[in-house]
Design a protein that fits this description.
It contains seven helices and two strands; from the N terminus they run ααβααααβα. The chain is mainly alpha-helical and 171 residues long. The chain has a two-stranded antiparallel sheet with strand order 1-2.
Length: 171
Amino acid sequence: MAVDLVEDEAELRRRIKATLLTFPESKALPAQQLEVAIDRIVEESKPEPASVAAPGMVRMSDFDIRFFLSLPMVPTVDEILGADAGGVFPPGWIHERKKFLDEHCQVKNRKDGDKVGLMDKIRVDLLTRGYVQVQKEYVELGSDEEEDSDDDDCPYEPYDENNPGGVVLLI
């Protein structure tokens, strides 16, 4: 039984790493920090030691994370940094980006249909926290909009493990 658990965790780590490497922001992390990000996600995937979201915040569900990451709207490094950067992230960029996205993805700053900012936040939070947290009202606001929207107008396919178009978090 213990061997199965070790093999299962090794497979989980392999799948998480494969997923994180599809994030353009992962290129901002040295290999050692990427391994730390994987460790965080593995630990946060266990219900016992999972971190509690900050006051007024909620942890985004695995289902919601998978849904947003399956959307085919992943930017390139050049789209994030600009072509002049030559694909090289400056030191500390990921932490500055995390601060920016934490502020950007608040109800007071939300713009209608701004799923791109949220998708950026999901990727950066997974790399820096091991989980995704957003304001409770931000999630509720999104749910109200989705209930009112006509699914036929949505250009994205629902989450599908076989969807090669987006990034699927494999945990």
